[in-house]
Amino acid sequence: MTSVTNDFQFKRVWFITGASRGFGALIAKAAIADGNAVVATGRNIDAIVERVGASPALLPLKLDVTDQASAHAAARAAVEHFGRIDVLVNNAGFGLLGAVEESSDAEVRRLFDTNVFGLLNVTRAVLPIMRAQRSGHVINISSVAGYRAVAAFGVYSSTKFAVEGLTEALRDELAPLGIHTTVVEPGYFRTDFLDASSLTVAANIISDYEGTSGATRVRAASLNHQQPGDPQQLAVAMLKLADANEPPLRLPLGTDTLAAIAQKNAYVTAETAQWQALAKSTDFAA
């Protein structure tokens, strides 16, 4: 594949996973409109082109993030075509709705394969390119559920908690190499995340959880396509994040996420103070 870098001058080259719909497609369109080149990846190339629009700035690539060889092939194709990768957006993922006990082994493993191991596959494929450049920005899409877990989203939250931990460590590892790292924590945005195409509902339902996880299932159904967050504004925010000279480790998006973070921080502060004496008692005596 022949590089087009000499024919078109782009602001940055973005590599986005899960770009056939939702956040991924919107970020891709916004990045191209902002003068960037985009490597938009997903399982369905036709859907990517349909949603993002054909453009010399777009390279649509088929990518199954759970396939390590596929991730490396996509990263190579991106560099062969555009010459570099400046921004990696690990966006591919889906949700699982159900109590922890209701979630089967197969459902949990499938979720981790995409949300965690898939993210790792793509990150490991792209980082050698960024290290060689001594520049880049790794952006991992987490969730408000990556900061605060609630009933019925426990397993999904555990995948996003993993993403948060990985991102914190990556920031320490990559900062000396000139590479920025950010984890983005969207709240409830008006996308198809609560549709069956993005959210798996645990097949096993246990009546004892009717008042907790069951209630969350009901609320999720009523909230679908009524969420407070504007996906177009999220895409704009991502452009501003990429333009920042000193981007944050964490970027919460949405007033609901800000409120959830404040609530959890207050709870942790109060509980830590309450149990401080016992916590200190486990050190060796001075």
Describe the structure.
- This protein is an alpha/beta fold and 286 residues long.
- The protein has a single domain (13-260), classed as 3-Layer(aba) Sandwich (Rossmann fold).
- 47% of the residues lie in helices and 15% in strands.
- It has nine helices and nine strands.
- The strands form two sheets. The chain has a seven-stranded parallel β-sheet, sandwiched between helices.
- Strand 2 (37-42), helix 2 (45-52) and strand 3 (58-62) form a beta-alpha-beta unit.
- Helix 1 packs across helix 7 (231-243).
- The protein is globular and about 60 Å long.
- The model has no long low-confidence stretch (mean pLDDT 92).
In spatial order, strands of the major sheet run 3-2-1-4-6-7-9
Number of domains: 1
Rg from Cα = 20 Å
Question: What is the CATH superfamily classification?
Answer: NAD(P)-binding Rossmann-like Domain
Q: Output the CATH topology.
A: Rossmann fold
Query: In angstroms, what separates the terminal alpha carbons?
Result: 67 Å
**Average pLDDT rating:** 92
- Major sheet description: 7 strands, parallel
> Can you tell me the CATH architecture?
3-Layer(aba) Sandwich
The structure class reads alpha/beta
Counting DSSP E segments of at least 2 residues, the number of strands comes to 9
